[in-house]
Amino acid sequence: MMRLTINRSMDPKNMFAIWRVPAPFKPITRKSVGHRMGGGKGAIDHYVTPVKAGRLVVEMGGRCEFEEVQGFLDQVAHKLPFAAKA
Questions:
Q1: pLDDT 10s digit of each residue in the chain, 86 long?
Q2: Which of 63, 67, 70, 80 fits 14 for a cystine, CB–CB 3.0-4.6 Å?
């Protein structure tokens, strides 16, 4: 969602984006629905990337001013499930 919004909005001839988030590495486990408690840890459901507060997620560069990219970076920040700013 983030990558798609930024790549659609930026001009690839004049701008570039550096993604500062590593690939998902933390497994999230879950037991099946209706399963009784106990029986050990559930199977891996999906992987996530933990992001600490104050960390850069994406960096924009190239021949662009902040005012040019602020609009779509604000849109991306609003869509995220945590407080973020452009």
A1: 788 888 888 888 999 998 888 899 999 999 988 888 888 999 999 999 998 888 888 889 999 888 888 988 898 889 888 888 87
A2: 63
What pTM value is reported for the model?
0.65
The residue extents of the domains of the chain are 2-32+40-79
Give the DSSP per-residue string, the chain.
Answer: -HHHHHHHHS-TTTEEEEE--PPP-EEEEEPPTTPPS-SS--EEEEEE----TT---EEEEES--HHHHHHHHHHHHHHSSS----
* Inter-CA distances, 15 with 8, 37, 45, 54, 69, Å: 12, 52, 36, 24, 9
C-beta of residue 12 within 8 angstroms of C-beta of residue 61: no
- Name the one residue in this structure whose structure tokens are 């960096």: 59
